[in-house]
Design a protein that fits this description.
single chain; alpha+beta; nine-stranded antiparallel sheet; elongated
Length: 591
């Protein structure tokens, strides 16, 4: 993830001058690393985001926060001190340091009462509120002396800016020879030497300068020709000139974004720096959160499944032992029938087997008679019988629970949206498999179903998690709709929407079966059995977990998930509208 560097902060501060003065109406904390300031001027209003996220610290206007209660203490402290004050000045504390100060006063002409410092410095980022006397009132996170002897951040202590860097300051007045000597005084990789020689640079900026100059990233300072040095210096000077004249042209790049236009480019950007930052970091954070949440849920499910599998194996072993109860009773019956043959001190008794009429040896204890041994065997048989009666429902419940977790795992494997993953997490929290994390906010807006269109034009809806499966089958689907699901394989509920009297063709049925197979745990198989029936024949057992149903009067058809997978892959590679079918790749539209 590309960090916000000094050049980007200068572009943000230059744009923020058009927002001065602005009244602060409220403060809202989006998450543990981000606050939003609601600013209003005479002509416009917006939400200025200040983030101290370790990988995505930034300062930019972003879309309004969600309408959910704010339970964070930090935002409440900021709101109590800054509410209804005017933002009168915004700028860098030092032209070559990544610390932005926002000054607040009752009115634009009056003295500053509060300063809000946004330190955009990677994992050391922070947001600190300082009063008129220069004392820290609150901070996004405090740093005690044990964590940092150089610069602790504690309430009641005077605010001290971060220590300045020791590298040289970039200046337009520096001649080419001095600049070249500063960069190449110690031979090494050019990118690394530039970062060491001057402050205010970032890896992303240096890579852009090298790319604009037509130089490879791994080039060594000793390998540069005089012409290459001169070409790089021209782009260096162009960067400094854009900083001095505040000429910023933000635009996306294949790997991120840039705010300095290439040399000899006069085009202006139609996208503001705030749109660039908001889009880039929200997309990157969403991808990061999606991957992290998917891994977390997968690990939790695997742990729960392993525990259940061990429990089921234990139950089955105990049932296998209980199955020997009939044998215990049979031996007891034999002992009772041949009790007259017993003599004191016998260690075994040879009797005639009722079934085979063959001699059968039954071991005995010297301390017990044949009748006492038979009574002990009867007790063991009764104990095993009671154990069997208790274990059987426990085993059935554990197997049902394992089937439910397999169903969740199947939906998790195909989930690529953060909204869907959040719903899966909320379901697992509600079912007691997960503990709600700190500052947890359950999703309030349900994600949308997957929607397809068959070759004949019928609509197909696919659930993306168990909650959606339940809603789709029992709230959305009508009795005329057809319900599809992989046979005894975890997967999504698939509904073929039909009106009264409508009958799908064999091609439609095959296509929906292919979709059901694709959205299941067996999507990598060549063919998968899929059952389908009328929606009215699908029922939910009382007390069943989400997504678990029973059905009857079903028909089995073979689905081919690989044909759908190949089609989707081809379409995404071409960047076309998603249009294919499970059989001959025509007539299907997915939204």
């Amino acid at each position: 993830m590309q960090p916000v560097d000094l050049t980007t902060l200068r572009a943000v501060c230059a744009d923020l001058q058009h927002w001065l003065p602005a009244r602060l109406e409220t403060v809202y904390q989006r998450d543990r690393h981000t606050i939003a300031l609601a600013l209003r001027t005479l002509k416009k209003q917006g939400w200025l985001t200040l983030s101290w996220h370790p990988q995505a610290a930034r300062l930019a206007f972003e879309p309004p926060p969600p309408r959910q209660p704010d339970t964070f203490t930090f935002s409440q402290q900021l709101h109590a001190q800054l509410n209804r004050l005017a933002l009168v000045r915004v700028g860098l504390v030092n032209p070559w340091e990544r610390v932005v100060v926002l000054e607040f006063a009752p009115r634009p002409q009056e003295a500053t009462q509060w300063r809000l410092y946004a330190e955009i410095m990677g994992k050391y980022s922070n947001v600190i509120l300082v009063n008129g006397e220069g004392e820290i009132v609150t901070a996004a996170h405090q740093v005690n002396p044990q964590q940092s002897r150089l610069r602790p951040i504690l309430t009641g202590q005077p605010y001290v800016p971060p220590p300045p860097l020791t590298a040289a300051l970039p200046r337009l007045e520096i001649p080419f020879e001095q600049w070249q000597q500063q960069v190449s005084v110690i031979p090494g990789i050019l990118e690394q030497q530039l970062l060491k020689a001057y402050r205010g640079l970032s890896p992303a900026l240096v890579q852009q300068l090298l790319a604009d100059a037509g130089l490879p990233l791994e080039i060594h300072t000793a390998d540069l020709s005089p012409e290459a040095w001169r070409r790089l210096f021209d782009h260096w000077q162009h960067w400094l000139d854009c900083l001095e004249r505040e000429r910023f042209v933000p635009q996306f790049t294949p790997t991120g974004y840039r705010v300095i236009p290439p040399l000899r480019t006069q085009n202006s950007s139609s996208v503001s720096i705030h749109e660039i930052l908001a889009t880039y970091y929200q997309d990157q954070l969403r991808q990061q959160q999606t991957q992290h949440l998917q891994q977390q849920l997968h690990q939790s499910l695997q742990t729960q499944r392993q525990k259940l599998i061990a429990k089921i194996e234990g139950f089955r072993e105990r049932l296998a032992a209980a199955a020997t109860g009939d044998r215990q009773r049979y031996l007891a019956d034999l002992l009772m029938a041949h009790a007259h043959l017993w003599q004191p001190g016998m260690t075994e008794l040879i009797v005639t087997d009722f079934t085979t009429q063959e001699p059968l040896t039954i071991p005995l204890s010297r301390e017990k008679s044949a009748i006492q041994t038979a009574q002990e065997l009867y007790k063991q048989q009764q104990k095993l019988k009671r154990a069997q009666q208790h274990i059987t429902p426990l085993l059935k419940a554990a197997e049902s629970e394992l089937a439910y977790l397999d169903q969740v795992a199947a939906t998790l494997a195909t989930a690529t949206s953060l909204d869907v993953l959040e719903e899966i997490r909320a379901e697992l929290i509600e079912q007691g498999y997960l503990t709600a994390p700190d500052y947890y906010r359950p999703p309030t807006t349900p994600s949308s179903y997957l929607r397809y269109t068959t070759p004949s034009g019928f609509t197909v809806l696919v659930g993306r998690n168990n909650r959606q499966n339940d809603d789709l089958t029992f709230r959305v689907a009508s009795p005329y709709d057809w319900w599809f699901h992989t046979q005894e394989i975890p997967g999504s509920h698939v509904i073929l929407r039909l009106e009264a009297g409508e009958v799908p063709s064999d091609k439609d049925i095959q296509y929906v079966a292919d979709l059901a197979a694709y959205h299941s745990q067996a999507r990598a198989s060549a063919q998968v059995p899929v059952v389908y029936t009328r929606r009215k024949y699908v029922q939910k057992p009382k007390g069943a977990n989400p997504g678990m149903v029973i059905y009857d009067q079903a028909t089995v058809v073979w689905g081919h998930p690989l044909s759908v997978s190949d089609c989707l892959s081809d379409v995404f590679q071409r960047g076309e509208q998603l249009r294919c079918s499970g059989g001959d790749r025509d007539g299907i539209v997915a939204e």
